[in-house]
Amino acid sequence: MSEPLLHDILLLYLYNESDLCETYVAQSAIDADPLVASDFRELSETALEIQRSPLMSAPAATLEAILTYARATAA
User: Fold this and answer.
1) Average pLDDT rounded to a whole number, residues 4-9
2) What is the average per-residue pLDDT within 44-61?
């Protein structure tokens, strides 16, 4: 399995968004390869730090510009 694909599966697994096959692949890779286990631990720790970090708000003008663009391109 290619590394980018495994990385994507590990992210899905981390956020409980993997299907049964992806869950098996992720857990098997974590159990079998210490490097994959280390990568998964690092992903888990990073996700936890992101959740703990204070939320920052974008300026209202920026949010409005994004919404305007989204509305214009959604049609």
Assistant:
1) 89
2) 89
